[in-house]
Design a protein that fits this description.
single chain, mainly alpha, 2 strands
């Protein structure tokens, strides 16, 4: 006997108002965690944390989110800047001979610079999106609620 699940057994995502099938941990439309299991399962917790970071970066609704991102990533950026500047000063002042450790240090500096660029981009996007959403909310009335989409 074939059992087909009922379409009425759905759960609405609190983030995007999309309907989801019952007993799913993550929203199929936006990836928001729907159950506590999404935060406790090791693999699904990565998706839940990634969703929180995406929300904080792309749609920061409150100033405290932007401040939190700066407090979280700001010290790391400062330390990376110190490391890159310190390595550059070392190369200029000491003029070390090329060796395996020298090439390893150059690779480390390049990797640090790439990581610095990534974190700087995250902070820039977060701040820019917060200021843009604040400016838009000051000039426009609130948007209508999203309607749930049917499950297919």
């Amino acid at each position: 006997m074939h059992y087909a699940p009922e379409q009425s057994q759905t759960e609405i995502c609190p983030n995007c108002a999309s309907p989801n099938f019952e007993n799913v941990d993550l929203c199929r439309a936006c990836g928001a965690p729907l159950t506590s299991h999404a935060a406790t399962d090791p693999l699904r917790s990565l998706f839940a944390e990634g969703f929180a970071l995406r929300q904080a970066t792309s749609n920061p609704r409150k100033l405290i989110v932007v401040i939190g991102m700066w407090l979280w990533l700001g010290p790391v950026i400062v330390m990376l800047l110190f490391a890159i500047v310190g390595a550059a000063v070392f190369v200029v002042v000491e003029r070390p001979q090329p060796s395996d450790t020298f090439l390893t240090n150059v690779f480390g500096v390049l990797l640090s610079a790439l990581f610095l660029l990534l974190l700087g981009t995250i902070l820039y996007k977060t701040t820019k999106n917060y200021l843009a959403s604040r400016k838009a909310s000051a000039t426009c009335p609130p948007a209508a609620d999203k309607r749930p989409r049917p499950l297919t």
